[in-house]
Fold this protein.
Amino acid sequence: MIEDYIPVIIIHLILSIIFLFLGFLVKKYKLGNIISGFNPKKDDPDIICPLFGENFIFLGILGLVLIIISYFAKGMISLKFFSITYYTILTVVVINIYYRMHIIRKNSNQ
């Protein structure tokens, strides 16, 4: 049973570390050019980069928390439930980021 969890945990651990790393880079160094949908003519990097960076860091930390919970509750949580939960949270956070970016653009045009 534990053999089934190892590859899934490793994949999600790598994703969480990537989110933490990207979040740190985007927030600290204002790397708006690596953000999909970022337009330097429309978007202020001082507003958009912290938004993306903080949310990516949040995703990384949340992913690590889910990994720890799933590791200790291996018999109670199925792999499908863990993966569906992880990717649902990921999708909701990404939609929230782009929605907030849209609101920021809309307010800056007025």
Q: What stands out?
A: The mean pLDDT is 89. The two ends are 57 Å apart (CA to CA). The chain has one domain: 2-109. Residues 79-109 form the longest helix (31 residues).
